[in-house]
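Lecture 7 notes: from sequence to structure.
We start with the chain below.
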Amino acid sequence: MSLYERLAEVIDSPGPDLPQRVDECIALSSSLHEEATRLLKEFRAFLEKMPLETMEELYTRTFDLEAACYPYVGYHLFGDGNHRGVFLAGLKEHYRIYDFSAGNELPDHLAVMLRFLARDDDSEERDELLSLCILPALRKMLQGFTDEGNPYQKLLKAILLLLEEGDEAMNSVDRRIGQRMETEEFCDGR
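Predicted structure tokens for the same chain:
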């Protein structure tokens, strides 16, 4: 699983395995970005203190009830008008080319777009999606944060910092993941 996919999992709705998902991101980010790793560790420390139900409520309050933090990239780029509709249709068509599905979510949901980045084999396209869409939307989301004590602000900052490292840095982490998995499979006799 790529770092893009792991980041998608931590920004998606929280589940009982969220602490494990964050731990995996921490392990992978430590060689990529020190500040992002520190923020992920702070988010993880917050998770240790909160029951899952509280995290679910906080997630809903942060991403569903606050327009400034809607997890929809197109909303932050275009608002709710016709331009966003065109953006959504374009994403949907692009996903179809790669036989990728957004599932029950809109195609511009941040987690969906991160999962797509893991599937897209064109580095130029990934760079464009990052620089023209995802990074500007993340910056807007962070500017709109009103609750400084909200741990999701730290998570969004960490994701932004990691994505700003660029596609090549993310892919180098993914290559190390692949090499480690091959070594583990070889050592396990698989």
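Points to note: The chain is about 75% helix and 0% strand. The mean pLDDT is 88.
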